[in-house]
Amino acid sequence: MGENDRSVLDEAWGRIPHTREVQADTGSFTQTRIERVLTIIVGPASLVLGAQAFVAAFVPGDEAAGWHLPLVVGVFVPLVAMIVACAVGRFARIFSGVFAVLFLVALALWPVATAGGPTPVPTENPWIFYLVNVATVAAVVAFPLPFQIAWTIAAPLLFGVVRLVQAGGRPEFIVPILLDVSFALILGSVLLTLAWMYRSIAANVDQARTLAVSSYATAAATAAGEHERIAVAALMHDSVLGALLAAERAGTPRERTLAVSMAREALTRLANAEKDALEGSDEPVPASRLADDIEIAARDLGVEIEVARRVEEGTPRVPGRVARALVLAAMQAVANAVQHADAQGLTVQLTGDAAPGGVAVRVRDSGGGFALDSIQPDRLGIRGSIIARLTAVGGRSDIESGPTGTTVTLEWESGDRW
């Protein structure tokens, strides 16, 4: 991806509202949000189940003497850390992973911790059972999918095994243990499936968004390149090629003066080629200002023209960008008349109308005219410097040419675009 594409991509992505969670990786906007939602949900849910287990832990348990307190501390301290981390949105994966691992360790130690302890009751579950599915959701937050599946299956099965070992394999424990294990497996599978589904949807949304923004960047870069190519081509025609042609054909003092002025303008514009040809203030100007600018620009080219003016009271002011485009297009038409018609019968007229509101510039000459269809595609004096220039600012241009002369009409209405 080129620098131009990347800058456009960054600009497009910058239109998406960013928060602390998504500034690090703009390519996973939705996934980051889904992860945050999961941690927000896991925190309160774990708090509810953890509180239930904590209350159950105060009842005389199944552990032998000296085991109850270490197990409670070893399980509930990382559980509290996980809940706090999920609530604040920082280090949730780390503390969730720590709890998921320590819970399985505590569960594996359960037969040892309960050896020699009180006789268990089949209808009463130990406090550690209430945290089986908490370990499942902790794995969902902390680990990749294969480990999530492993924890979802291993935690309930391990509880069933250690519970059966604690009971000494007595038959009356088999059915309650199977029911508890089945319930934990079903609930854990549902939680795992929901998390996987939302993460998959988020990944697909991010992929589609990235492709869309990348396509926009490519299209925008292509359009920018084409715009630059047209601008450079118009610049070459207006300034360089026009000056060269004028110098080649100059045979009279006036034509030589015109060629020198055009060469000076070409050097100035080439020196500022990286800038927008229409840059500058867009402050609206009076319509009559266009006539003054055309007369001054024509005088710089060695052509004395007095622009005929008919500006009605109430004619809208013309935005600066539009005014510059009209003046430049009019000067291209004047240059064409000087070069190709020897300025025969050259006149320029400015018209301003209050209703519907707009201005028009007409450049006429009485030369031999030309056929519009015969203009070569690489000649941009009319296509680029007149037609395209007016179209770019919401204006219109019309060219009529015949044996009796050529008329170039440049129009802009206030309701067209501004």
Fold and architecture overview:
The chain is of the alpha+beta class and 418 residues long. It folds into 2 domains: 3-214, no CATH class; 285-413, Heat Shock Protein 90 (2-Layer Sandwich). 62% of the residues lie in helices and 8% in strands. The protein is built from 12 helices and 5 strands. It has helices at 3-13, 29-58, 68-88, 92-108, 110-114, 132-142, 145-166, 174-249, 253-271, 288-300, 320-341, 380-392, and strands at residues 308-311, 347-353, 358-365, 396-402, 405-413. A 5-stranded mixed beta sheet has the order 1-2-3-5-4. Strand 2 and strand 3 (358-365) form a beta hairpin. The longest helix is centred in the middle third of the chain and has 76 residues, at 174-249. It is rod-shaped. The two termini are 36 Å apart.
